[in-house]
Structure formats: structure tokens, C-alpha cells
Amino acid sequence: MKIEQFKYENEGLIRVFENEKWMVGIKNWKPANDITHINCLERHNKTDELFVLLAGKCVLLFANEVEGELVIDTVDMEPMKVYNIPSTLWHNTVTMKETKLILVEDSATDMKNSDVVMLSEPQIAKVKELVSK
Fold first, then answer.
1. Which domain holds residue 115?
2. What letter does residue 111 receive in the DSSP assignment?
3. Looking at CB atoms within 10 Å, which of 41, 53, 78, 117 has the fewest?
4. What gap in Å lies between CA 71 and CA 67, rounded to an integer?
């Protein structure tokens, strides 16, 4: 037996380790997470999701539903802090080219137990305003 090592340098997300209970992914910048292309939020209905910023800059978008409307807010991530996204919380990440995140979640998390909502033009404008602060 020996210690396994994992690394990922390309764009986007890859699951680098997975077992029957949980998975660890490395998430790097990709065009869809750039502020110029951000257009949706997602939620995982059965599981939490953890993020850790290793390098670069990342803004966590999140939204709560209040009276049928999404109330969007942000958190500027700090390196080496663990951020928990509770199940059912709408969220996304806004990243820059040098960004590198670690992602930990239940290995059963997938699009069968998750939802995606497309943002309207006014919501996208609000996101851009919040991220630029």
C-alpha cells in the first residue's frame, strides 16, 4: 500500500478522489465561472458542499428564496478557510484565472438531486455589482 497523490491543472472541475461516501475535487477557473459569463445558480437538495480556496480569488454567490424571489448575496473567500454550502442553498462560484479551489461533497451528489436556475438579466447585473465591490 502507498499514499496516493492527486493534482489537476486544467480548467474546470475534476473529481480527484471518490469513494462510496464522499469525494474531493479540484476546481480551477473556467469561462462559465468568470464574472463575464456567470448566468446561473445551483443547489444540491440532499447534501452540503465544502469549498477551500487555495490560490487566487473566489467570490461565493448564494441566494435565499424570499416570497418567491431570489435574494442574492456574496462572500469573498479567504485562503485556507472552509466554507460550507448547506443543502438547498442556491450558490455558484465566481473565479479568476489563477483560482484554485478544493471541493468536498457526498459522492452521490449529482444533477439527479440538484437543481440549476438561470439568472435573469437584472439578476446578472446585481451579481456583477456585488462582485465588483
1. 17-132
2. G
3. 78
4. 10
Number of domains the chain contains: 1
pLDDT tens digits, one per residue of 78-93: 999 999 999 999 999 9
| Model confidence band, residue 101 (pLDDT cutoffs 50, 70, 90) | very high
CA of residue 76 relative to chain centroid, distance: 12
pTM: 0.91
What single string gives the DSSP state of each residue in 16-51?
EEE-SSEEEEEEE--GGGSTTT--EEEEESS--EEE
Question: Measuring CA to CA, which residue among 38, 6, 23, 13 is closest to residue 104?
Answer: 23
Three-state DSSP at 10 gives coil
